[in-house]
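EI: anyone free to look at a 87-residue chain?
SC: sure, send it
EI:
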Amino acid sequence: MGRPSPSDRQFRTALALWRGEPAESAWLTGPLLGRVTEPNERLVAARLGWAETKLALDRPEEVIEDLRPLMAEQPLNEHGWRRLMLA
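SC: here you go
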């Protein structure tokens, strides 16, 4: 198993801060609706970045464990599928 790295710790710390969904009890329309999706897109990007870090650290079993639920939520995300296949 690979050694911990600074980027691994940073991803772990950052993703541990995520709580709930943005504006989950608010009814939003128009331009505000588009702005609410941005944090979720950044969350997915962070999870994929962490998966890339884990692949570089030779921890494919963790990548598989992390990405299977994400790919169930994001079945059209080609970047996620690529990392999952590499793992």
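EI: The two ends are 13 Å apart (CA to CA).
SC: 👍
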